Amino acid sequence: MRKGQTFALASITALLAFTLQACGSNNKNESSPSASSSAPAASSPAASSGGENVTLKVWGDLGNQAVLEEPFKKINAAFAAKYPNIKIEYDFAQNDQSLNVALQANELPDLFWVQGDKTSKMSEMVKNGFLLDLTSYNMDLSRYDDSQKSYCTIDGKIYCSLPSFFDTNVVYYNKEIYDKNGLSVPKNWDEFVQGLDKLKAAGVTPIALAGKSEWDRAWPIFALAPAFANDALQAAQNGTGKLTDPAVAGMFQTFRDLVDKGYFGKDFLAQDMAGAQFSFTNGKAAAIIDGTWNNSTYVASGLSLGRFPIPNKDGKRIVQSSYSNFMTYAIASRSKHPEEALKYLEFLGGQEAQQIMEDATGLVPTIKDITPKDEGVKELGVFDQAGLNIYSVLTALSSPQSNAADMMMKDVIPKLMTAAITGEEAAAILDKAATYPAPK
């Protein structure tokens, strides 16, 4: 891709076919179900209630309830109008703990959200017999491309509703603060750092960071990794390189340098995400690095909002790529109403429900017939290349004995934030934890 090239929203879908799907939301990593869990018996379609009045229990994403509550009220109301015999009991009850308890007890709701191939969780649930195979139900997938189908596919079979939105990480910035300090969208990394220095000298926290929150403190790493080390991560994933590559070590060191230079402020280690977001929206911090899934949160704050992807030293804007799991739901194999549950999945996979989600959240659509909410959404889709997500790469390099992805989140990043290790040492820790494939 040549420098300065931008992608229209409609073309993101095709581009993603060549990229690894990644962690794209504010969701926490889910622990694996125990291998000793007894596999539940799958319900037969013959067990469906047909046209009878039935109730489906659906679990929503508790961690993103603030963003998703409004659109799902409207989506469920629209579904009820179309299928009056199917009652939806939608409860924001799902997080790591509740899901794992339900898996251990074989007491899953009829439907619940999954992260597709972004982590190994869905694959493990399939292997343990928890999810209903949707392949034989002849769902209409004509609006989707192969990469979106791949998100939901395990061993050639489909297990969830398909994704229709794109997730990545960007720098949200306060235009008024930038203008006041003579700053504009940086053309390259050096300009970005010079701007951070200028903001710090003016007594403004350059970037708000939730150092207390395991996932939210990682967003700078998720943004820096493709910008600085995309080729090295691709090589490691393919077995033709290692995580000790200087580009990977340099990327981790860059994150530590941001910490050492005070660009995240004085008290970021004790700050949670709500505190970091408030610091940004009330003008104490000039910017925050966050996901496109939280775009609506910042729009609602009323500040003069701008967005840009982190540029690398050459000025190229390579962003982590991921599909949003806001509307990707699976059906439990023990559901007594698989036919009705399938109707709900099909509704989630249709344009009506997706447009409701878009209008409420301002996600980046990957399907042409979803109309972007506003010009700000279009701004989120401006970049030069969709790159890898480091968490997904590390997940692919993990084994049952050594989880490199979790090691980065729970060990490496905290140590970088507290100056306990260098970028080179961070890369070495992950290299030791990784299991590389045979070169392709």
From TrEMBL:
Pfam families: SBP_bac_1 (PF01547). InterPro entries: Bact_solute-bd_prot1, SBP. Residues 27-48 are annotated as: Disordered. Residues 1-22 form the signal peptide. Keywords: Signal. Coiled coil: none annotated. PROSITE patterns: PROKAR_LIPOPROTEIN (PS51257). Residues 31-48 have a biased composition (Low complexity). This is Extracellular solute-binding protein.
